Amino acid sequence: MKVRKILRWIAVAATCMAIESGALAVPGRTDDVVKGKLTAPGLEEHANYFSENRKGVSKADLEKADKLRRKTITSIRDLLNSKKKSVRRFELLLRLGELYVERHDFLRDQELHSFETAYDKWSQEADKTKAGAEPKVSWAGSEGEMTKAANSFRQLVTEFPKHARTDAALYSLAKTLARLGKDTSVEYYKQLIQTFPKSPLIPDTYLALGEYYFEKHNVPEAIGYYKKVMAFKDHKAYAFAVYKLGWAHYNAPSKSEADTKENLGKAVTAFKLVVKLSDEADESDSKKFASNLNLREEAIKDLIMVWADAEDVQSAYKYFKTIGDNQSFFKMLERLGNIYTEQGKNPQAIAVFQRVLKDAPKRAPNPQIHAKLVELYDLIGQPGQVIVELKNMQKLYLGNTAWVKANGAGKNNEENDKPEAGKVENVVAKKPAIQEATHLVEHSIHKWGATFHQRGQKSNSEPYYKSAAEIYKMYLESFASEAAAYDIRYYLGEILYDFKQWEPAAGHYMKVAKQDPKGKYMKPAALNAVAATNQLVQTKKWPQLPPLGQVPKPITLPHEKKMLVEMIDQYVQLLPKEKDGEPMRFTAAEIFFAHGHYPEAIKRFEKITAEIPDTKQARSSARMILGYYADKEDWNKLISWSGKFNKNEKLCDAELKKYVVDLLRGSMFKRALAYEKAGKHEQAARAFLDYQKEFPNDPS
């Protein structure tokens, strides 16, 4: 069930209905899941306890029974209308009223289910403007049937004031009026007691009056009537009266702490007696406890409530250990932790929650408790412990852990490890408890990373920034495929950059840039990746390299410079037309050149001249290529490159044009001289002719 607004008291008194495995859940008792408090059982619990047990009955069977019920109602009404003097008239009117009550219960279940479905859908809609008005429960159909029941019983009492079973008619009329919220019910209950003092319905009537006064908050009067029921130990009403007596003592007014302690003690005694009665019931007596409302389970819940309110951990531990119910003890501790939290007793709450997590590490609710623990450590100003507990959540509830194994059967086992880390989602889809835990861990890590980051921004606090970075790393370890990881990775890169952790910052930036070519951070992330790596290179002290172009053997690129080249290459690949990439490309080529990787450097310089010719970097690249071959006196290569560049009009401005032409003239002449000096006269002659052809007006 989802968290929801508490209904008016009569709705609170009934449980939410859900269809599971084709069965209709039977109304019991609802908890205020917002505050973690139980609501007092009311008139509907009372009615459900004594009505026909519907637990485990399928929806189809319930609908089939109601169809038959409606047919029977029609038949009885026809008989009553046709034979108004029938000797069976009393039984027919009584049965008609009972059938209307049964229809009320059936329709009420449906109304609750319809409300729950509508409310869940409404609460899950993030945009409340689209969701519309908050759904409200409507009892119109069920209350209509109950009104018909009251009319039948009233007619019965009027027509048969002295019938042998008029006490049953009076009781049924009073009970239906009570469930309709009519104070006149009391008159009929008291009339029954006065007129039929030996009726077998006297215990039920005392209990009903106790319920009436309990609902009216007249606790002393309610206690009096509950105690009267306890004189009938063999009656089914006895156990319920003991149970409600516990609630009456729990709600009894107190004038002092001593009164409060005494009332809580009496409530504990009553609830323990209910558990004992249920446990001691033999097969025949168990019918007293066969009901839509499991009194033993309810009494255990209420013991948890009372002991938590009384902060009586030792008594609870001793009792639950005695009856072999450790899980109820841990529920009590959990409730106590919630109470301490509400009261602002944060250290006490932390101690209680830590005990639960330590002593019962496989409980299904532990992820939620852990999330509360994280909040509490933040409230007492221990951000370091916040991180510790977030790591514990990550370690305990993700991956192949004991908790995951214990809660991986598709149900929320209280005390019972996902497959390999990083493959959590394969199991999550099948296991509700694991899915919820995974979502909670993801949400918690995301929330606290963002919280500390925001605090760091507001206060310019280094510790907060560092805490945020550590939490962001945790998120990316476990939830890198989540949509939020894109922003988180960029934020982490920003923090690491600010703290001069250049290499990891660059790595995260580039991952962001490559993740989504159209992403909002693609361009700044790619640029920052190069900037961070450049800072990494600049902060290092490097040994002096040989003069440019004079490295005898290629020198292995240092890791940092190799990384810079890789980041530049990725930037250019992602943003080939960006102006910022132009100097980067030259830098990458220059790194290779400085370390003697001449073929790679020349290839990069040449690519710059071809792809971005009309740039400063292209002209510098041309000079680097030409200068390298000039120093090597490789006249053929120099002539080839000079001729190629000379034809590239976008590349050669006036200054470069003069430089290229001068190199071409000189290299062609020197090539001819070199052939001549080497005795290669034929080649020398052709070289001089080529020179003369290229530069016909050269006086030399």
Q: What characteristic shape results from the CA principal axes? A: elongated
- Number of H/I helices: 32
Main sheet summary: 2 strands, antiparallel
- Range of strand content: under 5%
Mean pLDDT comes to 86
What's the gyration radius in Å?
43 Å
Explain what this protein looks like in three dimensions.
By secondary structure, the chain is mostly helical. 69% of the residues lie in helices and 1% in strands. The chain has 32 helices and 4 strands. The chain has helices spanning 9-12, 43-50, 59-82, 89-124, 128-131, 140-159, 166-179, 185-195, 202-215, 219-229, 237-251, 257-280, 295-310, 313-322, 326-342, 346-359, 366-379, 383-397, 402-406, 424-428, 432-459, 462-479, 484-498, 502-515, 522-538, 559-574, 581-594, 598-611, 616-631, 635-646, 654-677, 681-694, and strands spanning 19-20, 23-24, 31-32, 37-38. Strands 1-2 form a two-stranded antiparallel ribbon. A two-stranded antiparallel ribbon has the order 3-4. Helix 3 packs antiparallel against helix 4 and helix 29 (616-631) packs antiparallel against helix 30. The longest helix is centred in the N-terminal third of the chain and has 36 residues, at 89-124. It is elongated and about 150 Å long. The N and C termini lie far apart (99 Å). Mean pLDDT is 86; it is low at 1-38 and 410-430.
